[in-house]
Amino acid sequence: MIKTVLCDLLSIDYPILQGGMAWVATAELAAAVSEAGALGIIAAGSASPETVQAEIRKVRSLTKRPFGVNIGLFSPHVDGLMELVVAERVPVITTGAGNPGKYLPRLKEAGIKVIPVVASVALAKRLERAGVDALIAEGMESGGHIGEITTMALVPQIVDAVSIPVIAAGGIADGRGLAAALALGAVGVQIGTRFICASECTAHTRYKNAIIAAGDRDTTVTGYPGHYVRVLRNKLTRQYEELIRRGATEEELNQLGVNKLRAAVVDGDVIYGSVMAGQSAALVKKIEPAAEIVCSIVSEAEEVLKRLGAVVNG
Ligand code: TUI
Questions:
Q1: Ligand 1: which of 118, 145, 150 to mutate, most ligand atoms within 8 Å of CB?
Q2: What is the per-residue pLDDT across 121-156, written as a single tens digit (0 to 9) for each?
Q3: Distance from the alpha carbon of residue 118 to the mean position of ligand 1, in angstroms
Q4: Which of 61, 64, 57, 67 lies closest to 30, judged by CA?
């Protein structure tokens, strides 16, 4: 049994959070992950507060266990979403792609656990001072919007810089990754890509199959400093590279990405859509229930840690 302070902090059985992936992390996936004893998370993405409220109520109809909501600071609805999680008494929120500092007093007053994703030591220190409950240190192996430091290098630096619990993310898909994260000083992991391939995840089957088919070199990073996005290579990424060669402006590059994540996740357009996935895609082998993903990660991590214990003692 792997229990850490994260299990007590969030009232969960296993120290695993499901990534808050826009369009992918719906009520169905979040409820299945929470039912399995990890923390399921609904991603607000760019949805309206009304839409997210319906998702929160759906999760509550599917599970009595704790769950979270992920709010990206890029959302045009960020103020309304923060009000919504307070009104709905959501137990946990994670944030991404920015600094949630100005919302913290209101969230803490409402008793919400706040766990921002950070990609740098500087922001980790600032948010610890501002009073967040824990941090997700996300390496550039992750899918979607990423920073510039790898998980292996970032996690121990953030662990050394703060006294609050640190959760590792980026490149983790199995029990070996969980064991490694614990070795780096993290108290748990956030996993995105593997949960896309959960049976309960409503993402299009072509999206899931693209992840399963991916090999070690099949992701690429598009964007420009401050706006890097990791996706599976396809015709969209080749069009993007062509625009870069022609010296396109940031505005033209952004234009190419508009609505492309939805096209991939909802319509299954894995050719011209934005198939966000982490480097761990190559570790994902099949579509299976969220409970089996959680159980196999935990039991594999237990085996790895036992084996490593024997290496030291034997
Ligand atoms: O947020 C993510 N991953 C995402 S969001 C997303 S939707 C989107 N699509 C296209 C463009 C932009 C967004 C897809 N994937 N992960 C969490 C994360 N946060 N990764 C990196 C960061 C981050 C970066 C800078 C967090 C804070 C930060 O701080 C900047 C500052 O204000 O200091």
A1: 145
A2: 999 999 999 999 999 999 999 999 999 999 999 999
A3: 8
A4: 67
Each residue's pLDDT tens digit, 178-193: 999 999 999 999 999 9
Q: What is the pLDDT of residue 78?
A: 98
Q: What is the pTM of this model?
A: 0.97
Mean pLDDT of 75-90: 98
- Residue 129 half-sphere exposure, CB side, CA atoms within 13 Å? 8
| Residue 295 structure tokens | 């159980």
Residue 304, ligand 1, Cβ within 6 A: no
Q: Is the CB of 71 under 6 A from ligand 1?
A: no
Question: Where in the chain are the domains?
Answer: 5-202+281-306, 215-279
Q: Is the CB of 46 under 6 A from ligand 1?
A: no
Helices (H), 144-216: 151-161, 175-183, 193-196, 205-213
Is residue 189 lining ligand 1, measured as CB closer than 6 Å? Answer: no
CA distances from 90 to 28, 130, 262, 269, 280 (A): 17, 20, 25, 33, 30
Whether 228 is in the pocket of ligand 1, judged by its Cβ within 6 Å, is: no
Q: Three-class SS of residue 227?
A: strand
How does pLDDT run across 259-313, given as a tens digit for each residue? Answer: 999 999 999 999 999 999 999 999 999 999 999 999 999 999 999 999 998 998 7
Q: By the 8 A CB rule, do 308 and 179 touch?
A: yes
Task: For residues 57 and 196, give the distance between their C-alpha atoms in angstroms, rounded to a whole number.
Answer: 22
Top-tier CATH class for 5-202+281-306 = alpha beta
Nearest one of 256, 179, 270, 262 to 223, comparing CA atoms = 256
